[in-house]
From TrEMBL:
<feature type="domain" description="Non-canonical purine NTP phosphatase/PRRC1">
    <location>
        <begin position="6"/>
        <end position="169"/>
    </location>
</feature>
<dbReference type="GO" id="GO:0046872">
    <property type="term" value="F:metal ion binding"/>
</dbReference>
<keyword id="KW-0547">Nucleotide-binding</keyword>
<protein>
    <recommendedName>
        <fullName>Probable inosine/xanthosine triphosphatase</fullName>
        <ecNumber>3.6.1.73</ecNumber>
    </recommendedName>
</protein>
<dbReference type="Pfam" id="PF01931">
    <property type="entry name" value="NTPase_I-T"/>
</dbReference>
<dbReference type="InterPro" id="IPR002786">
    <property type="entry name" value="Non_canon_purine_NTPase"/>
</dbReference>
<dbReference type="GO" id="GO:0000166">
    <property type="term" value="F:nucleotide binding"/>
</dbReference>
<keyword id="KW-0460">Magnesium</keyword>
<keyword id="KW-0378">Hydrolase</keyword>
<feature type="binding site">
    <location>
        <position position="31"/>
    </location>
    <ligand>
        <name>Mg(2+)</name>
    </ligand>
</feature>
<keyword id="KW-0479">Metal-binding</keyword>
<dbReference type="GO" id="GO:0009117">
    <property type="term" value="P:nucleotide metabolic process"/>
</dbReference>
<keyword id="KW-0464">Manganese</keyword>
<feature type="binding site">
    <location>
        <position position="60"/>
    </location>
    <ligand>
        <name>Mg(2+)</name>
    </ligand>
</feature>
<comment type="similarity">
    <text>Belongs to the YjjX NTPase family.</text>
</comment>
<dbReference type="GO" id="GO:0006772">
    <property type="term" value="P:thiamine metabolic process"/>
</dbReference>
<keyword id="KW-0546">Nucleotide metabolism</keyword>
Length: 174
């Protein structure tokens, strides 16, 4: 099976390889059609779907996969959280050219000092690099790896999103 992932990021390619161990995975950079820092679930999911559809059209693939990381809030009724809490979110989409499946990975609450900078218009990757003194964390362990002390890396988190996006193609219940 041949799958294309709509990104040149090696972490995203590896996530697809882990989700589909018997597939040949090509990484083809395509534009997401959304902002560099997607905000909200809708924009983040739209970026993933756009990447999946665009990469599928670039060659003879069984599936096109798009992965998009963003930041979003969740509505809450509890008194311990605020609607202004900001989370790292990740969405994946997969298409066979006819059907589109999508799924989310885990979400991580952003620390206030990072969320404040995102609210001010900065992008998560560069903010994380600045706070940690690293370079290009998005192609390494990612914010997920930092927040979980390596228990869940960015690759792990994205793999779960890709697996969820492929569920409609792998299960007859859909």
């Amino acid at each position: 099976m041949d799958i294309a992932v709509g990104s040149g990021n090696p972490v995203k390619r590896r996530a697809v390889e882990l989700a589909c161990p018997d597939a040949r995975v090509a990484a083809v950079a395509v534009d997401s059609g959304v902002s560099e820092q997607p905000v909200g679930h809708d924009e983040t999911l739209t970026g993933a779907i756009t990447r999946a559809e665009r990469v599928f059209e670039t060659g003879d693939y069984h599936f096109g996969v798009g992965i998009e990381g963003g930041v979003a809030s969740f509505s809450t009724d509890t008194e311990t959280a605020s609607d202004s809490d900001l989370y790292l979110v990740m969405w994946a989409a997969a298409t066979d050219g006819t059907q589109v499946g999508h799924g989310a990975g885990p979400s991580f609450l952003l620390p206030d000092r990072i969320a404040d900078r995102i609210h001010d218009g900065e992008e998560l990757g560069p903010v994380m690099d600045d706070v940690l003194g690293t370079e290009d964390i998005a192609t390494n362990e990612g914010a997920a790896g930092v927040f979980t002390d390596g228990q869940v890396t960015r690759t792990d988190a994205l793999q779960s999103a890709v697996t969820a996006a492929l569920a409609p193609f792998n299960c007859d219940l859909y």
